[in-house]
Amino acid sequence: MSASPQALEALTTATKSFLDQAGLKAARRDDGWIRLLFGDLSDAVAVWVLPQEWEDGDTLVQVMSIVRTGVRTGPELDVFLAEENGKVMFGKLVSDEKGEVRFTHPLLGNFLNRVELQAAIGIVASMAQSYDHVVAERFGGRRPD
Q1: 26-28 and 45-53 beta bridge pairing
Q2: Does residue 141 contact residue 69 with C-beta atoms inside 8 Å?
Q3: Mean pLDDT over all residues of the chain?
Q4: For the residues of 65-133, what is the DSSP string, one character each?
Q5: Residue 2 exposure: Cα atoms within 13 Å on the Cβ side
Q6: Cβ contacts of residue 62 below 8 Å, gap of 6+?
Q7: Residue 1 confidence class, pLDDT cut points 50, 70, 90
Q8: What is the pTM of this model?
Q9: Which DSSP letter does residue 4 get?
Q10: Quick check: helix, strand or coil at residue 55?
Q11: Angle between helices 5-21 and 114-139 (to 10 degrees)
């Protein structure tokens, strides 16, 4: 059983309100993802936020930042991600078959508050930025557009 449309709409409204209260300038895409930019244009980090349905009537807010795109995939990357994920206390590094490496962390939407959301966004941005050079050095790729 997924969350009701009303629960998802309430979470989306609350998420936008929390971002406004925090003074974060956000742009919402048609698919529901909300984009936030941090830093100057030459070294900006984008953090994406997505309120979404989960299971058993619950909701989630995905907080994600793309670390690198077009990286070399394979067993070495998989081992690196697994080892690094064992070191971090918050969030995780993931990759896909296209060579996109992301730092992501889900939050339970049912009890979301502004402080938790703001902290998650800041940590995800910081972690993505700190892994950018490490991933680039070992696996190549480029910064996301």
Answers
A1: unpaired
A2: yes
A3: 93
A4: EEEEBSPPPSHHHHHHHHHHHTT-SS-EEEE-TT--EEEEEEEESTT--HHHHHHHHHHHHHHHHHHHH
A5: 7
A6: 48, 49, 50, 52, 104, 105, 106
A7: low
A8: 0.92
A9: P
A10: coil
A11: 80
